[in-house]
Amino acid sequence: MTAFHYLLPALLVTAAHAGELTLETKPFTVSHSLKATVLPESVVTIRLDAKAWEVFKIVSIASHGSTIKKGEPLIAFETDAVDRKLADSKQALTVAELGMAQAELDLSTLEKTVPELLLRMERGAKMAAEELAYFQDTRRKADEESADQSLKRQEQILTSYQEELKQLLKMYEADDITEDTEEIILKKQRDSVAYAEFALRMEALDHKRKKAVALPRELIALTEKRDDTALQLSKAKLDLPRSLELKKIEMEKLKTSLKRQREELADLEQDRKLFEIKAPADGLFYFGAIENGTWVTGDIIKALVPKSPVPVGKNLACFIPATSKLMVEALATQADAEALAKGAKGFAVLDGKDDVLIPVTLSKSSEIPNLQGTYSTTFTAEWPKSLTPAAGQSLNVKIISYSNEKAIAVPTKAIELGAKGWTIEVRLADGKTEHRVVTRGKSNNEITEITTGAEAGQVVIVP
Q1: How far is CA 51 from CA 42, 79, 257, 366, in A?
Q2: Which residue in 31, 16, 23, 28 sits closest to 400, CA to CA?
Q3: Given the DSSP bridges, would you call strands 447-452 and 459-461 parallel, antiparallel or unpaired?
Q4: Domain limits of the chain?
Q5: Nearest to 332 by CA among 299, 307, 297, 362
Q6: pLDDT category, 14, cuts 50, 70, 90?
Q7: Would you put residue 401 in left (φ > 0), alpha (ψ -120 to 50) or beta?
Q8: For the segment 107-162, what is each residue's pLDDT rounded down to a tens digit?
Q9: Cβ-contact 56, 271 below 8 angstroms
Q10: What is the C-alpha separation between 225 and 126, in angstroms, rounded?
Q11: The model scores a pTM over 0.85
């Protein structure tokens, strides 16, 4: 017999003969048996919540269940790769910051030069248009008149020299003998005439080219310059502001990129702190994790060995501070969770220690089921001095949720649900039977309490 037999509900009916029971008032209890685990009240879950680094390879790890002093290492990981990454990231950040500074200078310069460039181009376009207009309205005609006047002047010079030579020849022909001085004067005058003839030919060529070629070409050049500067100005009015906007967008992209690099470096530096996990206090180191009132190990245990990589973002192990109280954690069914109220008392026994009763009290129960449909239930325990429990050990818990010292109860199978509600079949004094409407009370599955509709001494028919 186990230590729980005193908790089992007493049989509340007496058999008259097979299939019939005579009702009596006797004590009735509803008890609940739960499988439970010894777990610490407070625990430090060890997991690698890394943001930037993914590869954590174990170098050393404390043994499962080992006693650890505050500050001693629990798990250490290889650091060579992450340290190289940190160095590269810092160098890349420095380069990015210099690039950002240069981009800011370029943008500042562009903001100052774009308006000035547009102003200069507007002046250039205006001057080109004015030059063309002046050429068309005034200067071309003036240049043509000047060319005509230069040609006419050169003709006049030639005519003058020719007339002077003619007069000299007439004057010297009167003498029979031409003196040397006269010959010199005639030669000089003939040279002047020849030069004037040459100058006139050159002036005639320049005159012809200027009017036929140079001035029309200048018109074309001035027109093209006006059109080109106007086109460049029109294009610049679109391109320069657009280039300024593109530079601003580039700056924003650089700012965003630089911010991300800084955040990534900060995340990496934070992740670097995970490469050596130390005990926050004196306590015990356990592989696996405590989740929803259960100690979970699973496949993660296989990874907790040197040279093995461990997953990021998963519970790996747990540290139990020496000051943490040990609680009794169970997963109750919905029926048990609904029946048990805070403060309910009972007893627990460790597997293999049935001779030691451990008083327990329900301290907390979840109102919402977990994904498996059970409810996390926590009991405080009065641990006997003769017992030293360890986290993770299994227990059996028995709790009485209801007790009535003077109850009338029947086997649950003797109650039927009909059109008028719950009924039992009773035998009458004449030997006949009839169905009586009753009100059900608490139930412990096999036996159900009847609160109204039945009384001691009645004989109930049991199917």
Answers
A1: 26, 16, 17, 32
A2: 31
A3: unpaired
A4: 43-72+279-322, 83-270
A5: 362
A6: very low
A7: alpha
A8: 999 999 999 999 999 999 999 999 999 999 999 999 999 999 999 999 999 999 99
A9: no
A10: 11
A11: no
Backbone φ and ψ for 383, nearest 5 degrees, come out as: -75, 125
- Please name the residues in contact with 17: beta carbons below 8 A apart, sequence gap of 6 or more: none
For residue 26 the two structure tokens come to: 């006797």
Q: What share of the chain is helix, strand, coil (3-state, %, to 5)?
A: 45, 30, 25
Contact partners, residue 225, CB within 8 Å, separation at least 6: 128, 131, 132
What's the one-letter identity of residue 457?
G
Helix ranges (H only) for 135-214 are 140-173, 180-209
Q: Which two tokens stand for residue 242?
A: 């657009």
In the chain, the amino acid numbered 90 is K
C-alpha span between 269 and 298 (Å, rounded)? 31
| DSSP result, 321-373 | ETTPPEEEEEEE-HHHHHH--TT-EEEEEETT-TT--EEEEEEEE-SS--TTS
Residue type, 193: V
Classify domain 43-72+279-322 by CATH architecture: Beta Barrel (2.40)
2: which 2 tokens? Answer: 């186990």
Chain position carrying tokens 């991300």: 260
pLDDT at 8: 36
The lowest-confidence range among 1-10, 18-27, 150-159 is 1-10
